[in-house]
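in:
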């Protein structure tokens, strides 16, 4: 039977990159072969591995903490919307962020700041989905991700804002938004000031006995708002939408789509400034209310949107 006999144990020092580290070298004799073997025990090496392991655990804990903080922290993204003009949007994708947003919105409403609302979705109507609700002021837009947070947003404060007739909300062609909100989420949109009604108001009197075509937001921005920066952001978003009909259900949302959603809100304020004197406030609000009802109040078999202003909206 082969045995090992210890001949000597000694300490040696090695110089490595300017540092001395001590190794214990155990020398043994293998009786079967007569050869010497070395067994190195590097205490310094063991200590380094222990420190490295501890650092790894610390880094992992920090990353997990950062991830938890991200769930509660909204990043404000600044975008250029004009030659010398910027605005900000915040993407809201967790319930904790949403609760914070509702408090901020309530404060804005309390001090009478005007707000604007827009919905995004796939086949936006009772036949499709609402995946994003955008709501904000001239300076700050909240992009509320309904797809990620869920329907709880309505019971946690959003329903109150959307249904309150006293909280006036700028919108543009509110018909399908109102239809989707009512039939998919039991939210009866009210308090709307539809900017599309302002734009068509001058032309409806010319064609009172015929059909009055309504114009898209892009068309109106091109005609009434001198802002190529804003329009370019819309064009980039529209290009992405043309490549995928379900882009509003894609997660994570592309930055171009977040900007697109934001400038739709910001564009409403610019249009409002350009067209606000076309109708008295009371007539405009009443016409907007009728506009909301034209689609959501009737039976529909499919998404049958029309490019013609419904009769009876502007009296």
């Amino acid at each position: 039977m082969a045995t090992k006999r210890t001949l000597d144990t000694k300490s040696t020092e090695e110089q490595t990159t300017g540092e001395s580290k001590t190794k214990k070298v155990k020398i043994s004799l293998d009786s079967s072969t007569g050869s010497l073997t070395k067994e190195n025990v590097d205490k310094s090496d063991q200590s380094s591995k222990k420190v490295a392991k501890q650092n790894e655990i610390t880094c992992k804990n920090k990353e997990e903490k950062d991830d938890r903080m991200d769930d509660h922290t909204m990043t404000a993204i600044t975008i250029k919307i004009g030659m010398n003009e910027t605005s900000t949007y915040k993407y809201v994708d967790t319930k904790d962020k949403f609760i914070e947003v509702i408090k901020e919105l309530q404060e804005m409403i309390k001090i009478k700041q005007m707000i604007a609302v827009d919905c995004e979705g796939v086949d936006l109507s009772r036949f499709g989905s609402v995946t994003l609700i955008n709501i904000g002021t001239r300076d700050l837009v909240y992009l509320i991700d309904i797809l990620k947070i869920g329907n709880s947003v309505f019971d946690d404060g959003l329903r109150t804002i959307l249904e309150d007739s006293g909280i006036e909300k700028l919108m543009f062609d509110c018909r399908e938004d109102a239809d989707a909100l009512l039939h998919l989420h039991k939210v009866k949109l009210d308090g709307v000031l539809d900017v599309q009604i302002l734009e068509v108001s001058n032309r409806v009197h010319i064609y009172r006995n015929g059909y009055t075509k309504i114009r898209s937001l892009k068309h109106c921005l091109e005609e009434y708002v001198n802002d190529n920066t804003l329009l370019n952001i819309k064009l980039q978003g529209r290009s992405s939408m043309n490549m995928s009909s379900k882009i509003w259900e894609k997660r994570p949302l592309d930055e171009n789509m977040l900007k697109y959603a934001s400038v739709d809100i910001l564009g409403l304020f610019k249009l409002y400034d350009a067209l606000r004197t076309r109708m008295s406030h009371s007539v405009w609000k009443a016409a907007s209310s009728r506009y909301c009802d034209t689609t959501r109040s009737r039976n529909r078999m499919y998404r049958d949107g029309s490019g013609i202003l419904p009769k009876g909206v502007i009296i």
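note: Strands lie at 4-16, 19-30, 35-41, 76-82, 85-92, 115-120, 132-136, 140-145, 169-171, 192-194.
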